[in-house]
Amino acid sequence: QQQVKQSPQSLIVQKGGISIINCAYENTAFDYFPWYQQFPGKGPALLIAIRPDVSEKKEGRFTISFNKSAKQFSLHIMDSQPGDSATYFCAASGGSQGNLIFGKGTKLSVKP
Amino acid sequence: EPEVTQTPSHQVTQMGQEVILRCVPISNHLYFYWYRQILGQKVEFLVSFYNNEISEKSEIFDDQFSVERPDGSNFTLKIRSTKLEDSAMYFCASSDLTRQETQYFGPGTRLLVL
Q1: How confident is the model at residue A82, as a pLDDT?
Q2: B49 touching A, CB under 8 A?
Q3: In this complex, is the C-beta atom of A49 within 8 Å of any C-beta atom belonging to chain B?
């Protein structure tokens, strides 16, 4: 009930391509869904976040698509660049709990 | 841009020893968190702290762990008697009153228990 399932575990994309990472959740009390980007040896950095009242949010090359009925959300990285190579974590929080529940992460490699 | 800072960046300790990990949250933030990440695994919630008391804790946060805000700027995590399985990256995070869910993470402390 508290899990957030993330896929794929790893992803290789060519420069300029679209990277897509998917997450699914079960707890309908979740009402906040952020994506974090983590470079090796660094802390997770907030990338973009969405609430269930919208189906899509775009910030620059990063877009979250949200499907409330399916309890799924995804991160799309347009025009992927080698500098985007990092591990991406989806997360969720809400209800009575402010803590973030993280997915297992996706290691993205963007090839030049 | 304000950021969460953590010290030390690395700590090596012997099993059974006490360690204290320190964090300085963003100055106007009121919610504080500790998370850990075992190498290659996902980030896991340990504890949240608000108004000088623990507001939530996970099953990982057992009696060996404690948190404290000793002054107006620092937030600490103490592990009383470290075990090998406590080896991980420990992240502090903070958020403000109006947007509690928007948590900003520090760079982490890598703890190695030998």
Answers
A1: 96
A2: no
A3: yes
Q: Is B24 on the interface with A (CB under 8 A)?
A: no
Q: How far is CA B55 from CA A11, B7, B91, in A?
A: 37, 24, 18
Q: Which residue bears the tokens 């502090």?
A: B92
- Among A102, A84, A83, A82, residue whose Cα is nearest residue A93: A102
Q: Which residues of B42-70 are buried (b: 16+ CB within 10 A; e: fewer)?
A: bbbbbbbbbeeeebbbbebbeeebebebe
Residue A21 and residue A11 in contact, taking contact as beta carbons nearer than 8 Å: yes
- Do the Cβ atoms of A43 and B95 come within 8 Å? no
**A with B: how many residue pairs have Cβ under 8 Å apart?**
56
The full DSSP string for B26-84 is: -TT--EEEEEEE-TTS-EEEEEEEETTEEEEE-TT--TTEEEE--SSS-EEEEESS--G
- How confident is the prediction for chain B on average, in pLDDT? 93
Nearest CA in chain A to B10: A41
Q: State the pLDDT confidence band at B40, using cuts at 50, 70 and 90.
A: confident
Mean pLDDT along residues B8-35: 95
pLDDT of residue B62: 93
Contact B108 A42 (CB under 8 A): yes
pLDDT digits (tens, 9 = 90+) for A27-60: 888 999 999 999 988 889 999 999 999 999 999 9
Residue B82 to chain A, least CA–CA distance (Å): 22
